[in-house]
């Protein structure tokens, strides 16, 4: 049997994809075929290295491994036959070898070429020295700063770099010796010594850039505060046994390629005829390979649980990746039985479209359910699923459900429009008791009370409301105030029943009761498994509905959440709804795959500026300690203009510069991708921003659709609409003192509700800032927002 591994350093342009695929297919059919011209290099440091003919111009560099019936090839490069080719000179096949780490058994590609640091073997085919890498990193930072300052000075705008010096890595590694990290994890002692000698974390990136990916991430985890055991667990590292160490070398190499941590660098493909190999080749970028998943994420995506489970972590840590992989694993029978009915849901329509797109990329043949409750995966946003269920409910089911939720029955219901819902609330507030304190006689307080107390507990009478525990509600109410509040909320329930129209949270609760009625009358559950992304924004009605969608049991509900990105609603404890994910069923991700260290640091400082704790789905305090990024880049820039005209001029100049830089990038380095996201706090700012940029020659598209934005060079949206998106460059416009937070939203709020509102504003700013992959710029006219950290 012929199998393959493909190295992450493969660099294939469009012209090479098809011939490389044909080469591998021929190799799979007959490795001895004369047309392949497989050659052994007599001067190679590794006897397994081979070259083969891709076509007249290009050759493959690969390793041949034999272990019993397994005939395995590791493709590490495709380069030109031209001896003057710079790449070929840099990556001499004769100097490459595959090595197995004697401690953890991971297979690694080593390049024994020149210009390497003493004591540390080169990896990943690199030849640049540490000094050159550091110089390049510093140049990138200096260039960014100079560009920003030059443009700002030219336009008369003040520029400020939002930098913060990080401590030397040795402070985090205190007590950890090179010998200990070698014996426990397999980290090269010479590398550890160099890490301990560094003066800044920025130097760390340059040092680790050429190391094996597992070693790179292990050091980053330790520097971020992980213990040795936590680092081992996150990467799935294990110790080699005596029996394994005594096995033939080819067997050890093959086993090392199958380790979870090795899959960060080597894509193992069992069958060349499957679509999985084609996807690797055609992607041209291993990092985008559709089946790649980090070992820590893989465990969550593949594990079987006795009940519900949860993955949580900061923006860009791969929670959505886990959710999509888990839905696919459930659908294909890898976790439970085949033919399961699965719901994959999230908060908004745009996010749901993104989930479906990712699921299609992961598995183009995934079984899509034709309707909710049928075999396969149903992908939609939560409110759309609720509306579908309610619309299909019989009049008898709807009457019973509305009676249970509102205390008054209604045979048919539909949701209020946003405008109608606001008018209903305005009318309710006008009828409040004149003696009610202002801190509770406002929509923010009453709406939260309705959702988190009344709907969450299924309350329909004053007696029930007077005795219910108002857990998590910071503003206390005496008995008189409870009666006053109930009078308002009861009138809202009656109005909904009379109108036959519901607030969306009420709609979800009614949907839950329709499913409960059906179940009580002998019907089954709607789904076998539910997977939820962006769970932190779901309200009490949503959780009642999701709990009713699936019976309690193995792998019933899987949740991906980040309490720091809660920009709607209020914290809820899911055990209240019969969903528990405590202990080993709850795992935290900390490695950010999207944002640079500099941008991540700034985004996290936005969160840390508040005085209110973030609570997760288990009601526990959620911390940002330990979050880290695998990439370094440009420092965020804050631009302060004296007028909107100045602001538009400098923003347009920046965008023009980024687009020009991409267009002028050397052809041999490939076209640099630039996708700019311009974000505002309010909808009212959008048209002004699009128009202002147009006046400066920037063609920007207003959207809240992630799929559409991914194909545009410049997209404009609200910060709320940016949820789930990613851009190479992000500009947060108009982040002024009066815009964030919106002052009118804080009027008449109690101290606790005002703190909660400010926390949501911090979360919103954090969400927006963390959309930036490479460059983050924040602009303001006049005084900037108090939510922005000091530089």
TrEMBL record:
It comes from the Bacteria. Its EC number is 5.6.2.4. This is DNA 3'-5' helicase. The keyword Metal-binding does not apply. ATP binds at residues 313-320. Keywords: ATP-binding, Helicase, Hydrolase, Isomerase, Nucleotide-binding. It comes from Corynebacterium stercoris. InterPro entries: DNA_helicase_UvrD-like_C, DNA_helicase_UvrD/REP, P-loop_NTPase, UvrD-like_ATP-bd. It catalyses: Couples ATP hydrolysis with the unwinding of duplex DNA by translocating in the 3'-5' direction; ATP + H2O = ADP + phosphate + H(+). It holds the Pfam family UvrD_C. SUPFAM superfamilies: P-loop containing nucleoside triphosphate hydrolases. PROSITE patterns: UVRD_HELICASE_ATP_BIND. Residues 292-596 form the UvrD-like helicase ATP-binding domain.
